[in-house]
């Protein structure tokens, strides 16, 4: 499988950033290096943009070509990708309370039904709370293919643009309304996480940005290619916009940050993803040793890193006090070892099984739904469905790089 190093690098940065942010559960990085972790929660938003782009490309490409689209195949591939490692980690949290970073854990069924982000009591049950972002992604996987199929029956750039603008504007209005309401509560409650940060409908900006990139790439390939000639300028612009958004988030719970910061941050990261998808850009040519490996195991790292932090802290925390370098090396080694074990013992074997049972070229194993634009019908032969789907399958691996290798995994 051909990978795009620029996107791998972004994924590696995202997972490292998230883990640095979560180091607060073992005391953080100390005052001299706190700046490294302060905005680490934003790594999740990089994951969201990547998911929107990579999954969006996989869904939109066959629809644009008038090829068959297997809903069952798509959901089966996602299940093989997400559920095995997630189930193992959830079982550890439920069955072995000593492994939890904090004692309180929401009921297991909220994790199993991916409703945690809508029901969590974050003040009392924050163990494995980083699974909230998996809930957002699962909701995206569930809804987007159906919505894309419906919208692309009669493709309209005006309709698509209108929907995107409406989602962004409604998101700004909704977050503003919730902020004004919740900040006036007396006594105050833990409203930021539960009412703004976790709910799916508040966190659509990153996924939407990725989908917009995918739509541009699939439906306007000439414009995509033309803009990629300026990918380094886009990269600089993305960094500038992301920095502006993070400046707004210097007060993470402030009104301006929560009204405008999320779409701005998603725009900045979207520009970085656009640049990363071009192998001729600076970020696309930059080979960082270990980045590809971190990207490949990022999902397992995301799921398990808090357990590793907690086990090291409870086992060796006293001995590591006052030895900053040794503490960092010990925590980092434990996180990488546990994440790698989960990846190689659970993730990879299940991905191999997926290729046997859930890949798109499995004939009529899965129910397929097919539709054509009017101008496609006269060109489509009776057997083009399976052949086209198989041909696109290879192209998708090249074009979307590690779409199946790394799922945005997120948290905070």
TrEMBL record:
TM helices/strands, residue ranges: 9-27, 39-60, 80-99, 131-151, 158-180, 200-219, 231-249, 255-274, 286-304, 324-346
Molecular function (Gene Ontology), one example: acyltransferase activity, transferring groups other than amino-acyl groups
UniProt entry tagged with the keyword Transmembrane helix: yes
Residues covered by the Acyltransferase domain: 5-338
Spans annotated as Disordered: 375-412
A Pfam family that the UniProt record links to this protein: Acyl_transf_3
Keyword terms: Acyltransferase, Membrane, Transferase, Transmembrane, Transmembrane helix
GO CC annotation, single: membrane
InterPro entries on file: Acyl_transf_3_dom, Acyltransferase_3
UniProt-listed GO biological process terms: lipopolysaccharide biosynthetic process
Keyword presence, Signal: no
UniProt-recorded name of the protein: Acyltransferase
Species, as recorded: Rhodanobacter glycinis
Taxonomy of the source species: Bacteria, Pseudomonadati, Pseudomonadota, Gammaproteobacteria, Lysobacterales
